[in-house]
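Q: Convert this sequence to structure tokens.
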Amino acid sequence: NEELDVNVIAMNGYEISSIKVTMNGEEVIDAVSDNRIYIEHVIGEVEIVVLTNPIPQPVETDSRNAAVNYESSSINYGERFEASVSINNEEFQNLTVKVYMDDIDVTNKVYDARTGKILIEKVTGKVVIEAKANPIPQKPEEQPKEEIVAGLEQELRRIYGDDINIEQNSSDGQLINVYAQQKAETLDLITQ
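A:
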């Protein structure tokens, strides 16, 4: 007549849903308390049946200008998880995606940038997907050379005062014209 004292612990990612203990084919109801099995006097063959359920792992997203598509806000531990990521507006480009599981960056293992697909064969913790698309840079507006010259003259007067000589034949005036011409040509190239 030995004593039986066992603590039942579920595997990582699972929770105990029920414990059934039988001795000599008869259920021992008072043997289980808070995942502990205790029989003071074992008088025959003991059978223990423990049922577990996978713990649902949360799926969270942080997306900016991108769409993240998946089926459920949680996925059971050990199950497969699939998602897709895409830019949700034609005014955006350069999709950046990060995937974390249990606070570990798993992006390189589970994300295919060519297809936009995320595939986790076996979920082992909380899944977080970050997706961000950047706005397409807008082309600067064309600006006439006269406006550029006026802006440069105004800035030089602000810096050096009103008595600066910016006539076209002065060295400062010629410098303003060279800068204005370069800026106008650069803007022309960008806006084409």
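Residues 18 and 51 are 5 Å apart (CA to CA).
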